Amino acid sequence: MKQSSRYLRPREAARRLGVSIKALRLYEQAGLIAPARTGPGWRAYGPEDMARAADAVDLRRIGLSLAEIKSMLGTDASGRERALATHQADLEGRIRDMAAVVEKVRRLRTGLLREDGPPSGIAGMAQTRADAATVSFSLPWPWGGERFELGEISPLTYIIGPLGSGKTRFALRLAAALPGGAFLGLDRIADDGTAAEARLTSDPRLRRRVEQTLERLRRDGASPSPALFALVVALEAATAAYLVIDMVEQGLDQAAQEAVIAHLKRRPSGSQPLFLLTRSSAVLDLRGVGPDEAIILCPANHSPPVRVVPCPGAPGYEAVATCLAPPHVRARTEGVIAWRP
Predict the structure, then answer these.
(1) Is 27 helix (H, G, I), strand (E, B) or coil?
(2) Alpha carbons 7 and 62: distance in angstroms, whole number
(3) How many CB atoms lie within 10 A of CB 180?
(4) What is this structure's pTM?
(5) Would you say residue 89 lies in a domain?
(6) Fewest CB atoms less than 10 Å from the CB: which of 28, 131, 274, 302?
(7) Over the stretch 116-171, which tens digit does the pLDDT of each residue have?
């Protein structure tokens, strides 16, 4: 072979590709590349070899085997697209399987953290979770009446969705379907706390509980406000078995939102399960979701709501993340509603 600057020796070819010389030999053995030989017998990698090797490196990094790469590189663009679609479907299946494993680990952690502990071992924890309350109902408009089932109700569940996703209608139907459930709407702050104050006047014990909770929130950094007062009164006065709260962050600044969610996470075992509608990252910090918390996503395309595991890469995780924003960003769209002509 006549030497040319277009041909590279193994060491230089491997350096440019970011792989080892051994990897180049494996590509050659698999029939992906066929380097030329110099007079003394040294391998020399030309432009075509380097292009095919670069494709092989990229495809190996996304998990394809050498045999799959050889088959893909030996077909046309349509065949390559089909092969990549098959590989993508396989990866998505693995993600779903891993998300299910993550959820199982979270459930086992919950069993270990229970004050009374599981009956006996891992099997006991599984039984404890299997006996948890469940709910099922037909979805309202904008869905088509599909059946929604929540196989396990966590102490704290977040309901997430973009504007127009139907999450408020979903929450209303959920509250109606839950035995002893109640919905706490935004009318709680419509009168600057006048109605809440009237409730305290007729119930001294409720007033004491509210004052104690407000003092704890103040120590955690919450600034007093009519919205915070109304929310605390509603929470302390609620007697429903399950409470669904519309936009829990409404009217609260960031410090108050962070103090409220910290307070709700500290509630003792056996407290009333709560469902919180939110789009605030101060309320739902995806990095800090505990084993006793759950996320339900109402997708933008009106697919049925789904439970999302708070694990990057899990189905629905990115959609949840894009629905959340810090309080100062959320304030820009406060009061905005989705409208279609």
Answers:
(1) helix
(2) 28
(3) 10
(4) 0.70
(5) no
(6) 131
(7) 555 555 555 444 444 457 899 999 999 999 999 998 899 999 999 999 999 999 99
